[in-house]
Amino acid sequence: FYCLLFSLAVNAQRKIERAIAKEPAFKGAQVSMSVFNLEKQKHKVSFRSEINILPASTIKLFTLLGALQTFGNSLPMLHYAKQKGRFYFWSSGYPLINHPKYDSGGVLKFLAAQKDSLFYVPRPMTSPALGAGWAWDDQGYGFSAKKSSFPINGNLIQVIVNPSNDSLEVNPSYLQKSITYKRDSLFYKVSRNEHSYQLSLDKVDTLYIPFTPSNATFSRILEDKLDAPIYIGGKSDVLELKHKTFYTSKSTVYEALLHNSHNHIAESLVLMISGAFEWEFNTQTGLAKINQQNKALTGEITQLDGSGLSRYNLISPKALIKILNDLYKRFGSSGIKTYFPQLNFEGTLKNYAPDLSLRTVYAKSGSLKNNHVLAGYLSTASDKHYAFVISVNNYTTDKQDVKKAIGEQLLRLYIKLQ
Fold first, then answer.
1. pTM
2. Closest CA to 63 of 387, 301, 335, 280
3. Which residues contact 91 (CB under 8 A, 6 or more apart)?
């Protein structure tokens, strides 16, 4: 009987390998696939699952696991202490304060409600503002916002153009002078430093441009928002004081990480993890803490950043399956549906493979030039639950064709795994 089951499993694996080999979109690419039964805790499919792949944004799954292990579902947004008419506050590294896209968790209201003088205590960041292995030509885009110890506005300038009254709105307004624009016959041309951008002439259009964060810029933006002076304190002012922490239990950060693949949030989470153990913020310290909490994965992951922008990251599909399994144990099937986007319907997976019905797939995608990975969860009609990873590295075909081919592989799996 065991031999029969083994033979059936081998035959199923060979069918998958043949299907992958015949797929035109995968021609010349390095393809791997892993499927793991979450109830039985065993691999169902393992095709090149131990080779290293470029994970792109699927490395965010490891960042997420590290953050959950460190903070759980309650993230620190701000640390503070009061003494003699002074309200001292310092960063936890929380990335959503006055963010143009996401709820900031009430931090500004909390600061505005203080009757004491506000003293900002800077914490140093001892790692570069841009990550190792990031592409230099990405620096002008919003997805490459620079890291900092106390992010504000997502470290982005929001530019809104309204053609109906030919107006330009810049947030934060303090940085308006650094933006220039002109209108021509085809579009608005917006410029900042050496970077140029195009916005629509036909409708209200929004652009996000990274700025270089500093303590001075942070203080000035905060002063404008609070309409109150911000004084500068030092570590020695608060070293002996009992401090408190302002927390949020909202899932906004984690959902933005998975649904929208937000790079700056991922990088900030790594800095937050380092800051939970040391006064200085440091990316490599944060990554080392994540690895210490996951010693079973030691040697299986090379991680240089939290977001996956780095071309130096490496991971095996087998290791990604382990991370997905750990996340499933934390979230359960219902939690997975809350935190992960549904294929073809939500976030970065909207219209992933629109011609295919894949309603029971919730996943995280990762893309860099000529590389695409999809990692997540598939449930069958008989309510069986699986984790899967499908990786297509070094493809030369059309990206949408690759995504459609991945969708077709998932559809085959859905039918076979009933």
1. 0.94
2. 301
3. 78, 79, 123, 149, 150, 275, 281
Reported as a pLDDT band with limits 50, 70 and 90, residue 407 is very high
Residue scoring higher pLDDT (117 or 137): 117
**Rg of the Cα atoms in the chain:** 23
End-to-end C-alpha distance for the chain, whole angstroms: 20
Q: In what order do the strands lie in the sheet with 230-232?
A: 230-232, 117-120, 86-91, 75-83, 244-248
Q: What counts of helices (H) and strands (E) characterise the chain? A: 10, 18
Show the beta-strand stretches assigned E in 84-187. 86-91, 117-120, 156-162, 167-171, 180-183
- Give the number of other CB atoms < 10 A from CB of residue 84: 6
Contact 60, 261 (CB under 8 A): yes
Give CA–CA dist 417/33, Å, rounded: 15
Q: How many residues does the chain have?
A: 418
3-state secondary structure of 366: strand
| pLDDT at residue 8 greater than cutoff 80 | no
- Is a pLDDT exceeding 50 seen at residue 5? no
Residues 364/415, Cβ–Cβ less than 8 Å: no
Confidence of residue 7 (pLDDT cuts 50, 70, 90): very low
Residue type for position 301: I
